[in-house]
Design goal:
The complex is a heterodimer of chains A (about 300) and B (about 270).
Chain A lengths: L1 H37 L17 H7 L2 H33 L5 H13 L2 H12 L5 H10 L13 H27 L2 H9 L4 H12 L1 H17 L2 H6 L11 H11 L3 H27 L6
Chain B lengths: L2 H33 L18 H9 L2 H32 L5 H10 L9 H10 L6 H9 L2 H12 L3 H9 L4 H12 L1 H17 L2 H6 L8 H10 L6 H21 L1 H13 L1
Helix pairs in contact in B: 1-13, 2-13, 3-6, 3-7, 3-10, 3-12, 8-9, 10-14, 12-13
Classes of the chains: A mainly alpha (about 300), B mainly alpha (about 270).
Chain lengths: ~300, ~270
């Protein structure tokens, strides 16, 4: 009787899982494995089918200056977006969590960019950056008398301009998670510290911040993944230019695979991206694991 | 801390919070300004500027936005329906059934949080060509229907439901699917709402994969439509582009403003589990 129930549980469990697993395998796991396999083959062209070429694609990647360029860009993009948006998110959450005049409006203002499509956001910001005519130039022009500058057309500033848009879009999203975490912190802890005479600054660094660590881990992993995933706005703002100055890895994969139709090389670049993501995720997990204080 | 300095501190914080809030809303406010005024007032901010809806009308006529909206609507509905169905069944299996391979399969599900369909564009495009689905709405949707995030979220919720309820329903003669339908799904409603809002806003806004896999008016979602519309940079005025931009984000934005509390709580709920 008991073994019958167990057997039935097995069958039910598998049957329930089957539909989801089919789609999961078909569009996540198998493609991931195929990407890896295809990175050792040449791109099929017309009648010529794909040929095994060993590590040729990887050698090409290693000597591809554009690959290194976009990799550095991506690194810079990650460094530029992650700490700033997380710090802003914490500050925003602290403010919104307090009794603040007009809290509803402030919270809405912070969160609104999250609901807008990145592609639409890019359209709006494009005008801000327009040389001479755009809002930035108008402000810097009238305040400091600066001459018109082409933020998106200058290799030195194009990536930074994109970083600003990304921070603007992401900070409010991360704020939500911190807000949830802040509301879970018992008020008694803060009150106890206040009775002991601790100032706001001390309370934040000694109590609030450590208790927010699990959230920070979660947000951090999300932010890292996003820094490799968010490329929509590049299409509108710079299209990767000038001279790949603002292209990121996923954008380059798109270009290689769908503009130059070199799918095998695209697969190789995807392998690099996946390897990088896994490394970063694992690394973060171990880095944080020692510092995270679970209740 | 003395009372005066506390008051000063609070005032400073409020002021800073407001400055940041105004800065954050500025791009959107600006887009609204240009969209509802004639092109002549794009960069001239006078309160007496005449209001107009002409920019919206121009944008609506210049590109098949009605069709794009319909496509996006079909797309997000289709994705959400499939996600609810697939994720519910899978989450139920992980939460309440003992079977060999459970841990391993769950790890495979979680792997999708890292190895996302968003990144596997090259292979997924090949699959769609193989299935002869390129340039169809299902092609945009299929990679996302089995959502690892959704399965995880629902499993966490199902696990908090007391087993006694489950057993009581079984004693009354409900089958294992009956229990799912009558006990688990009703009790997980807030999670469904939360996940639904996150999913709809995510797929409404998705761009790269739809850009790759669609190439006709009949299938393009609004995001891709908007990018094509604003890429014709020759003659289109800024105010018209901004009107189009607002239009595409409009439904989500209005929904957000109306259900702000639920939205924020949904994202919170989706995040903390």
């Amino acid at each position: 009787m008991r073994s019958l129930k167990i057997k039935r549980d097995w069958v039910h469990g598998w049957l329930l899982l089957l539909p989801a697993m089919v789609f999961l395998f078909a569009f996540t796991h198998i493609p991931a494995i195929m990407t890896f396999i295809n990175s050792f083959y040449s791109t099929p062209r017309g009648r010529r089918s794909a040929k095994f070429i060993g590590l040729d694609n990887y050698e090409r990647m290693m000597s591809d200056p554009v690959f290194w360029k976009v990799l550095w860009n991506n690194l810079w993009f990650a460094i530029g977006t992650i700490p700033v948006s997380i710090a802003l998110a914490i500050v925003m959450a602290l403010w919104v969590n307090e009794r603040l005049a007009g809290r509803g409006f402030v919270r809405m203002a912070y969160f609104t960019p999250t609901v807008l499509p990145l592609i639409a956001v890019a359209n709006i910001w494009l005008f801000f950056y327009t040389p001479g005519f755009g809002l930035f130039d108008q402000i810097t022009g009238s305040l400091f008398g600066w001459s018109a500058s082409n933020y998106l057309g200058d290799p030195a500033t194009a990536l930074n301009a994109i970083i600003i848009v990304t921070v603007w879009k992401e900070a409010g999203f991360f704020m939500i998670f911190y807000l949830a975490a802040l509301q879970a912190i018992p008020v008694s802890l803060k009150e106890a510290a206040q009775i002991e005479g601790a100032g706001r600054w001390t309370i934040f660094w000694r109590i609030t911040f450590p208790l927010l660590m699990p959230t920070t881990l979660f947000v951090c992993i999300n932010a890292v993944i996003n820094s490799f995933r968010l490329v929509d706005h590049i299409f509108i703002l710079t299209d990767g230019g000038p001279d790949n100055a603002s292209a990121l890895l996923l954008f380059y994969i798109f270009e290689v695979a769908f503009r130059f139709w070199e799918t095998a090389y695209g697969a190789t670049l995807t392998v690099a991206l996946l390897a990088l993501l896994s490394l970063l995720a694992i690394g973060q997990f171990f880095l944080f694991d020692r510092k995270v204080h679970y209740k | 801390m003395t009372r005066a300095s506390d008051l000063f501190d609070r005032g400073l914080n409020t002021a800073a919070a407001w400055v940041l809030a105004l800065l954050w809303i500025l791009p959107l406010a600006y887009a609204i300004w240009t969209a509802i005024h004639p092109a002549a007032y794009e960069a001239r901010f006078v309160l007496t500027a005449p209001l107009t809806l002409e920019n919206f009308a121009k944008a609506w006529e210049a590109a098949p936005f009605a069709r794009y909206f319909l496509n996006t609507f079909i797309l997000v509905t289709f994705i959400l329906a499939c996600q609810f169905f697939l994720c519910t069944l899978a989450a139920y299996a992980f939460a309440r059934f003992e079977f060999p391979g459970r841990g391993f399969l769950f790890a495979l599900v979680l792997l999708q949080l890292l190895v996302m369909p968003d990144i596997l564009i090259v292979e997924n495009y090949k699959t769609m060509r193989l299935l002869d689905l390129v340039d169809t709405i299902p092609a945009i949707a299929l990679p996302y229907v089995a959502s690892g995030f959704g399965i995880f979220l629902l499993r966490q919720t199902f696990m908090t439901i007391p087993r006694e309820l489950d057993e009581a329903a079984r004693i009354e003669g409900a089958s294992f699917l009956g229990v799912l339908w009558r006990v688990y799904i009703p009790l997980a409603k807030p999670t469904y709402l939360a996940y639904g809002l996150v999913s709809v806003s995510h797929h409404w806004n998705n761009f790269l994969w739809p850009l790759i896999v669609t190439n006709s008016v009949e299938t393009r979602p609004v995001t891709v439509g908007l990018s094509i519309f604003s890429a014709i940079d020759s003659g289109v005025e800024w105010s018209v582009i901004n009107a189009a931009t607002l239009m595409t984000s409009g439904p989500l934005l209005i929904a957000f403003l109306l259900f702000q509390r639920q939205f924020v709580q949904s994202f919170m709920r989706a995040g903390i589990k």
